[in-house]
Amino acid sequence: MNQERIFQVLVAPHVSEKAASLADSNNQYVFKVAVNATKAEVKKSVEQLFKVKVDSVQTLKVKGKVKRNKYGLSAKPTWKKAYVQLEQGQDIDFAVAE
């Protein structure tokens, strides 16, 4: 995988109450990823960007909601989320990521 694709795969860390509790209890981190990203690409991207060892990756697509506005119906975009479990002793500090 080339260097450019590594930066395209991970979009952002997903910050929520559930994601924070998973990081504390199960050593899992949640990321918003590109819709066409595979589990192998997510694993390589996290390992190279954060210099950690990834144990497993689980992905799911979050379907965009249909909203009503004064112009009729509009749909929010569908996006993909990845749950990344790190090996024991590994940790990601988002403030000091290189």
Report on the structure:
The protein has 98 residues and is an alpha+beta fold. The chain has a single domain, classed as 2-Layer Sandwich (Alpha-Beta Plaits). Helices cover 29% and strands 36% of the residues. It contains three helices and six strands. The strands form two sheets. Strands 1-2-6-3 form a four-stranded antiparallel β-sheet. Helix 1 crosses helix 3 (39-50). The longest helix has 12 residues, at 39-50.
Show the helix and strand layout:
Elements: H1 3-9, E1 10-13, H2 17-25, E2 28-33, H3 39-50, E3 54-62, E4 66-69, E5 72-75, E6 79-86
Antiparallel strand pairs: 1-2, 2-6, 3-6, 4-5
Helix pairs in contact: 1-3
Descriptive terms for the model:
98 residues; alpha+beta; Alpha-Beta Plaits; 4-stranded antiparallel sheet; 3 helices
